[in-house]
Amino acid sequence: MATSTIMPATTVPADTSEYAAGRADAQDDARALTIRQLQRRAAHYTHHATLPRAMGYVERVWEIGRERAALATAESKRAYADRAAI
């Protein structure tokens, strides 16, 4: 019988302070940058920052992209519904 180690689907880096700092950096940058600019900055982070910090930044950029896409969809549906009511 073989033994196996079960790994979680997502792993959090051992240095959670750097991970959280990367997420915070992405959140701060999101106030002034477009999603394309955030993606470019994330690519820069992957080459020049520590691995946990880069992971936090990239994951937050992905979340921001999904949030903005969902918001744009909801706003367009609302605008369409408002026009249909006129």
Describe it for me?
With 86 residues, the chain is mainly α. The protein is 74% helix and 0% strand. It contains three helices and no strands. It has helices at 16-30, 35-48, 51-85. The longest helix has 35 residues, at 51-85.
In short:
This protein is an all-alpha fold. Helices cover 74% and strands 0% of the residues.
Main attributes of the structure:
mainly alpha, 86 residues, elongated, single chain, 0% strand
Uncertain ranges? none
User: What is the global morphology?
Assistant: elongated
Number of strands: 0
Order of SSEs:
HHH
Q: Helix fraction?
A: over 70%
Topology:
Blueprint: H1 16-30, H2 35-48, H3 51-85
